[in-house]
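can u do me a favor
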């Protein structure tokens, strides 16, 4: 079989072909099959060709390549090796004949020899590759040892996936062609594979080409596109795998190890974020950066992305020793693998420091800041579980509010240049203890920015897919247990973001912030939790109503039917990044005597006086309203702009959403 064509046969073929190539070069030059006048030259050049060119092929790995799965790069390397060896043969032959006083070949001989040798050595290898591709494309796999694969997406990512699959035949995945919705690519050849049609051809091609799997190689595709392709694959009865989105790849190289099953995060994927990586790197390069909650889902991703900005030092502060240990080891392993990117004399590797500590302990924070002297602080540590904090308000107060106050005090004392707090959309018109505690933490950040005149800001965003406590993890566990999948209300809606996406926008907000602002991330359209549950059931290969059920359990304490986007009176505008909005007047909402009221709140939390705690929440946050009745759901399809128009008069400044250039607003 052609795929078992061993490279030793190529060695034998080269040894036979090279003397013939030398003969043909002489014959073509003299236009006669009788080349007896050049017999000594033919013997000399043939001998050199038999020694030099196979030796060069051996040294450059030409004989180690698997030609049935060769790429254009393989053929290019082979041609360059032949060119180098051929020039060596011509130079050595000319020198040898000159020294021996023998007749020299015509001056055009080297060009004829190189051209014929290229054809003689590259041609058979290219034919083997083309025959293998054609045979695998139109014949069913023998004994099901190889599965035929279609690549959805004929762009750079798709071409890279094909190349990776061809380089790893042990995977048993044979690409047979591309699919792409761009009609101009139809019938084009990419990496030797044809573009066979668009996504609507999946069912037909699955039958005619015996396709067993479709790989979605469109890292910039939206969730809607992924959903449609996935549904077509299900209808065709073929498996589907996907390459991660751009927010997950972060510029990394595509490899077959990254191909995975389609997950709910892919179906909710939105338009790719355009981030200004250069400005973020300029902000963090060479700085000492401290991240609280560094072992959490958001904090750990912050650590990963900050590390790629080449800080001088990265201090990971977390209360859970296991999570701190894991992220510290992960980051150090990353540095080890990428040690070549940090030449010692120009850019030393960042120092990774894991610290187990709680933001609730001011003396411990003081010791950490005294030792590491951070210049930039990201505050991600928080209690975030709404129902749990509703039952234990003292814990929310001590961790989310007092912890933030302690951290801000340490930042002020140690002259921290920049501070970013991770907040939540639940802080907007809060109905829960958790949301109220995060709103008060926001006010503390704004107050500190006003006093210090430094870029201390807060960033709000909604639910994060895959974070600890995420409803996605709950649904996944319930599906694994056989159900039922529990949803609190059929109209419950939430905004969702992926963790890398949220962190990218947090870093962008850090660059834009001037101090005393609150940033709101554009989270797209709200998603019904029941629709989320249905998608996850389908992706698990189960049928709703037959294999598993959805049960409605009723709203829990502190929950809203939908999360709101803006606080009344906050003047929101677009920033240079279209996915980030800014409330430049946020610091004007800081109440008088905030510190004194928080001291009273702290005393109530220490006494565990729930009545006093809730009373203080009302005093500090005028908009705090514990739910007495279910909220009205946000109409389907509402975007961030439409929601804004509903909340403010039509002539408000918020509706205009004018871009900010050069300034993020004053305070």
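np, heres the sequence
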């Amino acid at each position: 079989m052609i795929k078992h064509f061993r490279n030793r046969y190529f060695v034998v073929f080269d040894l036979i072909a090279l003397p013939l190539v030398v003969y043909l070069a002489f014959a073509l030059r003299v236009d006669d099959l009788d080349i007896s006048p050049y017999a000594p030259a033919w013997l000399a050049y043939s001998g050199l060709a038999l020694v030099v060119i196979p030796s060069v092929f051996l040294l450059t790995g030409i004989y180690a390549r698997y030609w049935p799965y060769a790429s254009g790069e393989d053929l290019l390397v082979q041609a360059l090796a032949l060119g180098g060896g051929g020039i060596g043969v011509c130079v050595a032959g000319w020198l040898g004949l000159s020294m021996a006083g023998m007749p020299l070949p015509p001056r055009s001989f080297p060009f004829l020899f190189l051209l014929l040798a290229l054809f003689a050595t590259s041609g058979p290898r290219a034919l083997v590759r083309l025959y293998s591709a054609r045979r695998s494309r139109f014949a069913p796999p023998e004994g099901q040892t190889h599965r035929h694969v279609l690549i959805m997406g004929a762009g750079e990512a798709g071409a890279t996936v094909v190349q990776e699959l061809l380089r790893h035949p042990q995977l048993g995945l044979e690409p047979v062609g591309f699919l792409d919705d761009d009609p101009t690519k139809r019938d084009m050849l990419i990496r030797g594979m044809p573009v066979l049609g668009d996504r609507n051809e999946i069912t037909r091609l699955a039958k005619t080409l015996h396709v067993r799997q479709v790989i979605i190689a469109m890292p910039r595709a939206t969730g809607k596109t992924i959903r449609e392709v996935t549904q077509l694959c299900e209808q065709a009865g073929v498996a589907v795998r996907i390459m991660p989105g751009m927010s997950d790849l972060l510029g990394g190289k595509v490899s077959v190890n990254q191909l995975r099953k389609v997950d709910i995060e892919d179906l909710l994927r939105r338009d790719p974020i355009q981030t200004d990586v250069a400005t973020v790197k300029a902000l963090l390069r060479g700085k000492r950066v401290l991240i609280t909650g560094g072992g959490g889902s958001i904090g750990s991703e912050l650590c990963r992305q900050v590390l790629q900005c080449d800080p001088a030092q990265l201090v990971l502060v977390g209360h859970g020793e296991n999570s701190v240990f894991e992220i510290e080891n992960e980051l150090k392993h990353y540095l080890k693998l990428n040690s070549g990117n940090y030449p010692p004399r120009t850019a030393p590797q960042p120092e990774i420091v894991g610290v187990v500590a709680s933001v609730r302990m001011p003396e411990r924070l003081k010791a950490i800041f005294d030792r590491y002297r951070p210049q930039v602080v990201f505050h991600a540590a928080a209690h975030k579980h709404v129902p749990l904090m509703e039952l234990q308000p003292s814990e929310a107060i001590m961790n989310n509010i007092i912890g933030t106050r302690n951290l801000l005090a340490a930042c002020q004392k140690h002259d921290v240049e920049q501070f970013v707090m991770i907040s939540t959309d639940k802080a907007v018109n809060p109905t829960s203890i958790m949301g109220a505690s995060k709103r008060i933490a926001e006010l503390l950040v704004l107050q500190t920015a006003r006093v210090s005149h430094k870029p201390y800001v807060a960033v709000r965003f909604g639910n994060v897919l895959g974070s600890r406590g995420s409803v996605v993890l709950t649904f996944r566990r319930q599906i694994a247990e056989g159900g039922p999948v529990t949803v609190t209300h059929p109209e419950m809606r939430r905004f969702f973001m992926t963790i890398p996406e949220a962190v990218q926008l947090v870093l962008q907000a850090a660059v834009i912030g001037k101090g005393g602002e609150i940033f709101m991330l554009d989270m797209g359209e709200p998603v019904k939790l029941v629709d989320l549950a249905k998608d996850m059931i389908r992706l698990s290969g189960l049928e709703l109503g037959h294999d598993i059920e959805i049960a409605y359990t009723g709203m829990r304490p502190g929950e809203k039917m939908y999360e709101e986007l803006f606080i009344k009176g906050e003047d929101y505008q677009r920033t240079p990044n279209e996915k980030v909005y800014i409330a430049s007047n946020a610091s004007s909402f800081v109440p008088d005597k905030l510190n004194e009221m928080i001291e009273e709140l702290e005393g109530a939390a220490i006494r565990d006086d729930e009545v006093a705690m809730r009373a203080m929440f009302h005093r500090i946050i005028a908009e705090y309203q514990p739910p007495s009745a279910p909220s009205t759901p946000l109409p389907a399809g509402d975007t961030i702009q439409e929601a804004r128009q509903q909340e403010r008069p039509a002539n408000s400044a918020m509706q205009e959403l004018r871009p900010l250039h050069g300034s993020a607003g004053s305070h």
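The first strand starts at residue 147 and ends at 152. hope that helps!!
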